[in-house]
Structure formats: structure tokens, C-alpha cells
Amino acid sequence: MKKRFTWVVTLIALISLLAAACSSGSDTGSNEGGSTEKVKLTIWHNFAGDDLRAKAVRGLIDEYKKNNPNVELDAQAIPVDGYRQRLSTVAAGNEMPDVFFVYAGSQSQEFYDAGLLQPITPLAEEYPDWKANFMDGAFDRFEFEEGQIYSAPVGLSATSFLYYNKDLFERYNVTVPTTWTELMTAVKTFNDNGITPIALGNKAPWVAQSTILGSLADRVTGTEWFLKAVKGEASFTDQVFIDALAKFKELVDNKAFQEGANSIDNTQAEQYFIQGNAAMMISGAWTLTNLAASATDEQMAPIEVTTMPAIEGGAGAPGTISGGAGGGFALSKNTEGAVKEAALDLIYAISGPDGQKAIAESNSMVMYKMDLENANVSPLYLKAFNVAKEAGITPVYDAYLSAEAGEAINNGLQEIMMGGKLEDVAKKLQDAQARSTQQ
């Protein structure tokens, strides 16, 4: 009888241990670094195009999905032009997806102020070498409180490279411009010979602001003045900013851009440039990956890259590029528990070392240190990366302005291209930014 009792006790103990082990395996086991608990996870992003960077990011998301069969992943790729509005709509109802791509600057700041974000600092704590390997300033626009980061950039947002076709410059004996005077001389010479001087596709009106005005205006006003104006300590109606807008108008009046520039998009402008119809294009790092995906080796061979020319007498430094940390993936404040753990794993899968390498090899700029000489990138990418390493970085306007003010200057540049008054555009910008600083 005693032996039977002992056997029963032992059997119960074994069953208990087995049940505990099964419970532990279903709740806390790992699969490629993530929990095996079944979770539903949503991610929104704007990498919807056919360019190499978009494909690389979607590939990273697909790889995560493959490696984590326990995660039911709802991934939505939303076109760039409609992404901001779509995200703003769900933000108004506090219905953010678990993980979403967010732009560094005013957009991420507004989401933080609205209490819609939670930090991804646990990733930095778990992977300290990863965090340390980012370039200086990478987290500046994602640190809303000391010791906490709310995203990790998956790109270097350099927005104002001056791309030029050296064959056209040599054919018409034009000097690659390093000053505004040389630029205007180049504009005249190319127009005289039936070549569009500068390709521009401003149908989505952020293009002229992001690629041209940020660098152009900084060369006139200097960075310090702009940052004061953003905070309300200077005014966009000041003469120095009117002078900056006048430089943009000078390009318009001298037919620097092709006819109908407000009616074609940035991709169409890139194709117009690479086909040899324009001598120059002022655009961001995204053009590197777009051209790598669409242009032939023969088309790419004559393309060189530099910075916009200096403006004589301006307060800003020459040889700079507007830009900074690109966007990154953020975590919704409402995401908790096992879903939060899965979301953090997904963010690391995209922005960790392997993700950064995949994005760099799509010929897209990153703020992560790596040996690019051994990376699978194009010669033009390496040239642009070296230009960026030597250049100072100045603000992109819509990364610092409020959303309303960003829209005001975007639309204002279109108005100038259609004959609008500089003073009216400046006042609309000032009024919009003043409303944001008074809130």
C-alpha cells in the first residue's frame, strides 16, 4: 500500500512538471528571438513603390513574418503621397497601428505630444552595440525626453544633392556651379541650347520645399535665423526670408525648370533628367535608389553629384546639404504584452544591423556605420555618400515647421511658380507657424 501511494505521488509530480513545461513552452519560448505566443500585429509604412529601398524594407518585413509564424502580421504599404494624411486620420481617433513608419521631426514630435508613442529604449538596452553604431545625431529628432528614444532611423534623409550630367556640361562648355552667379550663367547657357537647366517634379508640392528651398534659404538666412523663426523669435516676414524666396523666384523667372513642373511628379522628373533632357536635378538621396532601379549603366555613366552652390553675401555656410535623420519605425502607446514584444522584434528586424545593411545595399543612405566599399552599392551612391560625409547638415523645413506651416510653404512655392507674391507666401507661412507656437 505504501509503495502504491509513493508511485501515485510520483506520477502526479511528473504530470505537474510536464504541464508546467508545456505551459512555459507555449507562453515564453522563442522563435528567432521572439515569443511563440500567438499574437496579432499591425504595421503601416509608406514603402509601397517599386524602388529598391521600398523592396528592401518590404523584404525585411516578409522575412520577419517567415521567421515568426506565431505572429499574424497585418502589413499595409501605403503610397507616399497619401501616407501622412492616412496616419493623421487614425491618430485623431487614437487608433494607431502597433508599428508604423514616422518621419523624424515635426510629425513624430506631434505624435509624442499627443501621447501616441512609447519608447523603443528596451531595444537600445538589449543591443547596446547596435545603438552605439549609429552616426552622430541619428537619434536627436527621436529623443523627446532624456534617456529615451522613440525610433531608430532607417535612413539618412539628405534632401538637396545637386546631380548633374557632366557630358552636357562639357558639350556646352559650362562650369559646374559653385556660386549662385555661376548657376545662373549655367541656366542661361542651357536654355540657349534647348536643354532644360534643372529637372523638377513638384506635383506633390513638398518636392520644391524639401529639395531646393531648405538649402537655398539656409544659404541666405543661415541656420540660426531659421531655428529662431520656428520658435517665434524671428518672423518669416523678415526681409532676409523674402530675399531667400526671391532667389527661388529668380530660378522660376529665368526658366530654370521645365515647363509644367507643377504637373509632373518627382519620379517623372528623375526620368526626364536621366534621359538627358535636363542638365541638373536638385533632389534627395531617394533619387540614388530610384535611378539604380530604373536607369541603364549608359545613362548613369555621366551623372555626378555635388552640393548646391554658395550664395554670395548670404549668411549661411556653403557646401551644406539639407537633411538629417530619416524616418523610422515607432511603437504605439496602446501596444502591450506579447504584442509589444513582437513589435519590438519587428522594429529591430528592420532597423538592426542586418536591416541597415539591406537598406544600404538598395542604394539608400543610412545613418549606420558600415564598410560601404564592400557593400553592393552603385558608384553614384558611393560618390553621394562621400559628399554627405564632408557636408554640413542643415534643417529640412518640414522637419521643423508645424504640419500646417509645412503645408503653407509647400503650397506657397507652387504659388510663386505660378506668379504669386513673395510677401503673401511669407505671411501665410508666418501665420501658420505662429498658430503652432501659441498653442
From TrEMBL:
Pfam families listed in its UniProt record: SBP_bac_1 (PF01547)
Cross-referenced InterPro entries: Bact_solute-bd_prot1 (IPR050490), SBP (IPR006059)
Record keyword Cell membrane present: yes
Gene3D superfamilies, alphabetized: Periplasmic binding protein-like II
Alphabetical UniProt keywords: Cell membrane, Lipoprotein, Membrane, Palmitate, Signal
Signal peptide start and end residues: 1-21
Domain of life of the native organism: Bacteria
PANTHER family: ARABINOSE-BINDING PROTEIN-RELATED, POLYGALACTURONAN_RHAMNOGALACTURONAN-BINDING PROTEIN YTCQ
Full protein name: Extracellular solute-binding protein
Taxonomic source organism: Paenibacillus nanensis
